[in-house]
Amino acid sequence: xxxxxxxxxxxxxxxxxxxxxxxxxxxxxxxxxxxxxxxxxxxxxxxxxxxxxxxxxxxxxxxxxxxxxxxxxxxxxxxxxxxxxxxxxxxxxxxxxxxxxxxxxxxxxxxxxxxxxxxxxxxxxxxxxxxxxxxx
Amino acid sequence: xxxxxxxxxxxxxxxxxxxxxxxxxxxxxxxxxxxxxxxxxxxxxxxxxxxxxxxxxxxxxxxxxxxxxxxxxxxxxxxx
Lengths: 136, 80
Prior knowledge:
The structure holds two protein chains of two kinds. By secondary structure, chain A is mostly helical. Helices cover 72% and strands 0% of the residues of chain A. Chain A has five helices and no strands. The longest helix of chain A is centred in the last third of the chain and has 31 residues, at 93-123. The termini of chain A are far apart. By secondary structure, chain B is mostly helical. Chain B has one domain (2-73). Chain B contains three helices and no strands. In chain B, helix 1 runs antiparallel to helix 2 and helix 2 (25-45) packs antiparallel against helix 3 (49-73). Chains A and B meet through helix 1, helix 2 and helix 4 of A and helix 1, helix 2 and helix 3 of B.
């Protein structure tokens, strides 16, 4: 007998795997370069979501729900409060990595957009089949 | 809490499907922005509020703006 939270987390992870598969399909099989860029942003966001899910702690006890890894009252914090915070907060390390990955993804997307614009100026189209035919 | 997150992830699959399969590129960008909004909600529900603060301006604001500028300078419809 599986618990309800395990079932719901399975639904979330399955949806993310389906999003990953759809984004990969868009990158590999869609001929238009703008659609490929859109699919690449979706792929990066889904990978970031996997990292967030890895850091999430599923608490089976309903009396200790998980909390964000933000210590609000940090002056004169007692030891019991600190132990309680460490035992209930989610893992902050994947969140820090994802924060960096989002900004790097934005830079990569801007670079790809300018490459696509230059390809349109050179070839007059963004369809990769047309570009292949024009090059040959 | 996780029930709402699971429902949001199922809706995100629908948004990603329409974003990939749509022939009109402007509509595809709008569906991609809807997917980003749902992802921001999922991040908030998975106890990552600092990610939400960065992710909403970047993925709902900047990505669609940049790709819409690209579409306005190039083609608007994907040919079959």
